[in-house]
Amino acid sequence: MVNQNELKALVGKKAVDWVFDNMTIGLGTGSTVKYMIEALAKKIQKENLSITGIVTSAETAKQATSLGIPLKSVDEVDHIDLTIDGADEVSADFQGIKGGGAALLFEKIVATNSKKNIWIVDQSKLVNKLGSFPLPVEVIPYGSKKIFERFDSRKFHPTFRLAADGSKLRTDSDNYIIDLHLEQITDPFKLADYLKAQVGVVEHGLFLNTVNTVIVGYTSGPKVLEAR
Ligand SMILES: O=C[C@H](O)[C@H](O)[C@H](O)COP(=O)(O)O
């Protein structure tokens, strides 16, 4: 029986098949992406590739730097050829929830500036409709209690995400994360519009119309799903 980490490693390794010489690659964040970055570093070395990485979190920057992958910031490049990232949930119509690792803001900036995005997930992340995974919303600390109360009154079942020491977790941009426990999202586009309209909300974890390629790790092997 293959365990979840083995499935993550499988898709992480598979994803670097889309990487070619001289590409600028967006590097996502999370436990699945970690395997992809390992595989990418090996491929760069083995094939002597010239690759520039654009990271989406301090965590990814640390790993990529330790493996010798050359990095630039998103503002230092004129384009990103491809971004490879994980996801927390992917619906049958290729929409996703991201931000389980609190990196949604930089991930969305990098994704929206990429010519192509690929998500790598194990089979447990596939759902019919989004919403079982709590939807992260990044908010600036000032006024965040007011936003929380508004979400609460709309029955979004909000919770502030906490750090290991019990304090409110701070993102790489020093913001808070409010997780919405929605169970099922009927209209992700409508919800995304509502969330973006709230003053103090910096970004939310609904990644809509972002990818058309998803690599899924099944016990039988990786499968590449392409949107029609
Ligand atoms: O903020 C974190 C990211 O959106 C991750 O890509 C997402 O949470 C998936 O992470 P993992 O591969 O660890 O399940």
From TrEMBL:
Keywords: Isomerase. GO terms for cellular component: cytosol. It is an enzyme of class 5 (isomerase). The active site is at 107 (proton acceptor). One of its GO terms (molecular function) is ribose-5-phosphate isomerase activity. The keyword RNA-binding does not apply. Signal peptide: none annotated. The keyword NADP does not apply. Gene3D superfamilies: 3.30.70.260, 3.40.50.1360. Belongs to the ribose 5-phosphate isomerase family. This is Ribose-5-phosphate isomerase A. It comes from Liquorilactobacillus mali KCTC 3596 = DSM 20444. The gene is rpiA.
